[in-house]
Amino acid sequence: MKGKTALITGASRGIGKAIAELFTKYGAKVIAPTRKEMDLTSSASIAAYLDNLDQPIDILINNAGINILGDIETISEQELDDTLQVNLCAPLLIIKKVVPQMIKRKSGKIINISSIWGQVTKPKRLAYSITKSGVNAMTRSLAVELAPHNILVNAVAPGYINTELTQKNNSSAEIEKIKQTVPLKRLGETGEIAEAVFFLASERNSYITGQTIVVDGGFTCL
């Protein structure tokens, strides 16, 4: 990882922070734009930030995302638009901006952070599930398109992870119930997701592309 430059979105907390810390530990130069620097709700902001970068990106981690709870009757059009923009459109726009330099150098790793809710679902995860299913499809499509340029594209789909977002969307009692539905009987830790991302982004991965790696303690096996 030494000498590599990694762009990581949503690196201020949770999974993104754990990824950034692990990459930094092993010698990567991490670029982690704040929301003020690159607002994912604005295509213009994304373009402006990336156009001003003065160095090529070796590794792109699309981690930032939002999870607005709501069913078909209660979720608003604005909430749908925001979820689609941040979770799906923004990562695609970032890739579109970053990938030309990767193609030029015939090298690159792209990892999109998906979710188990892109494969299974539960009530009030409508918008989130739609976008994460889209992330999985985007990952497969780009892997095929970019393979001739030696650019590997994968996704990591976390299950229930011990993050602020999990704590926000579930009460303490609900979290205890969730743990009982996971074969390993616990939540995952952010560092465990970071390790999976690190492997896919490292030189040790030379042949895995187009895959969505599920890291969920066995939850989706049931």
Q: What are the salient characteristics of this protein?
A:
globular, alpha/beta, 222 residues, single chain, six-stranded parallel beta sheet
Description:
With 222 residues, this protein is an alpha/beta fold. It has a single domain, classed as 3-Layer(aba) Sandwich (Rossmann fold), CATH 3.40.50. It contains seven helices and six strands; from the N terminus they run E-H-E-H-E-H-E-H-E-H-H-H-E. The protein has helices spanning 14-25, 43-51, 77-105, 126-146, 164-169, 172-181, 190-201; strands spanning 5-8, 29-31, 59-62, 108-113, 151-158, 212-215. Helix 2 packs parallel to helix 3 and helix 3 (77-105) packs parallel to helix 4 (126-146). It starts with a strand and ends in a 7-residue tail after the last strand. The mean pLDDT is 97.
Question: How do the strands of the widest beta sheet line up side by side?
Answer: 2-1-3-4-5-6
In DSSP terms (H or I, runs of 4 or more residues), the helix count works out at 7
Q: Number of folding domains?
A: 1
- Please mark out the parts with pLDDT under 50 across 5 or more consecutive residues, or reply none: none
Number of strands: 6
Q: Name the helicity range.
A: 40-55%
Average pLDDT score:
97
Radius of gyration: 17 Å
Shape: globular
**What is the assembly state of the chains in this entry?**
single chain
Give the CATH level 1 class.
Answer: Alpha Beta
Quick structural gist:
The chain is an alpha/beta fold and 222 residues long. Helix content is 45%, strand content 13%. Helix 1 (14-25) links the parallel strand 1 and strand 2 (29-31).
